[in-house]
């Protein structure tokens, strides 16, 4: 069986690497012949620091489906079309919005250096922080500390993009149209109803919809309707549930 795991809030917490109890449970899955796949909102660059080294070759979906990697190589990226990119950049400029913007590997960032998002960006210095003007291809945009949240949402709703709201954090996560975790999983060759998914947020809905079974960690109102099982956000309970699949 294939197991697909979101990371933050699902099997890693507070931006920290996977705990030993989670690593041991995942290792037991793979030793029994199961395949482990990671599917995160993080770009591949920022997935790696929270995973043990021996998992860096595992299949990965990054940027909610915008990046697909296997055997340490990014095999697919989806970027914004030029016209759409320019529309979003115009919104950013006219409202003086702070952002984290990813190209295929490097990134641009404005805002507070102590923002929780910033602390998780490229901690191992694998990439370059570059000016936005130097970024030709844009794969993913995260808007931070938005002063007029609903106005920006209204403007983005007119564009062919996918927007994930993190209202409690004042964050909007923007991807090109057609990008989601299920689209990324299909690029890895996964088929409908052939895997078990673990997630905790609305950006996990598409991979839950196509899973054989889906386990929601903690609680999210939108995701609940697509989950076959709910588990509290407790690493020991999550580990016990994983081992029950053996």
Q: Can you give a write-up of this model?
A:
The chain has 246 residues and is of the alpha/beta class. The chain has two domains: 2-77 and 180-244, Rossmann fold (3-Layer(aba) Sandwich); 82-176, Hypothetical Protein, Haloacid Dehalogenase-like Hydrolase, Chain: A, domain 2. It is 27% helix and 24% strand. The chain has nine helices and 13 strands. α1 (20-31) runs parallel beside α9. The longest helix has 13 residues, at 82-94. It comes from Paenibacillus dendrobii. It holds the Pfam family Hydrolase_3.
Estimate the global geometry from the Cα principal axes.
globular
Would you tell me which CATH topology of the largest domain applies? Rossmann fold
Q: Largest sheet, described in full?
A: 8 strands, mixed
Number of helical runs?
Answer: 9
User: Overall pLDDT, averaged?
Assistant: 94
The end-to-end span amounts to 10 Å
CATH superfamily of the largest domain: HAD superfamily/HAD-like
Low-confidence stretches: none
**What is the CATH level 1 assignment of the largest domain?**
Alpha Beta
Bin the helical content: 25-40%
Secondary-structure element order, as H and E? EHEHEEEHEEHEHEEHEHEHEH
Query: Could you tell me the radius of gyration in angstroms?
Result: 17 Å
């Amino acid at each position: 069986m294939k197991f697909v795991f979101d990371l933050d809030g699902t099997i890693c917490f507070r931006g920290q690497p996977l705990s030993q109890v989670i690593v041991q449970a995942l290792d037991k899955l793979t030793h029994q012949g199961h395949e482990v796949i990671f599917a995160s909102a993080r770009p591949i660059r920022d997935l790696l620091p929270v995973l043990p080294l021996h998992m860096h070759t595992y299949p990965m979906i990054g940027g909610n489906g915008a990046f697909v990697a296997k055997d340490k190589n990014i095999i697919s990226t989806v970027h914004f079309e030029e016209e759409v990119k320019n529309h979003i950049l115009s919104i950013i400029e006219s409202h003086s919005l702070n952002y984290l913007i990813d190209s295929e590997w490097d990134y641009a960032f404005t805002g507070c250096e102590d923002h929780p998002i910033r602390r998780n960006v490229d901690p191992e210095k694998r990439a370059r922080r570059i000016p936005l003007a130097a970024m030709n291809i844009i794969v993913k945009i995260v808007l931070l500390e938005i002063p007029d949240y609903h106005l920006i949402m209204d403007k983005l709703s007119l564009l062919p993009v996918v927007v994930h709201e993190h209202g409690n954090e004042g964050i909007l996560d923007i991807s090109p149209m057609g990008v989601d975790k299920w689209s990324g999983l299909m690029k890895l060759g996964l088929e409908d109803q052939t895997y078990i998914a673990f997630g905790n947020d609305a950006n996990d809905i598409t991979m839950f919809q196509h899973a054989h079974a889906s386990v929601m960690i903690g609680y999210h109102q939108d995701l609940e309707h697509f989950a076959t099982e709910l588990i509290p956000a407790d690493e020991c309970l999550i580990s016990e549930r994983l081992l029950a699949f053996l």
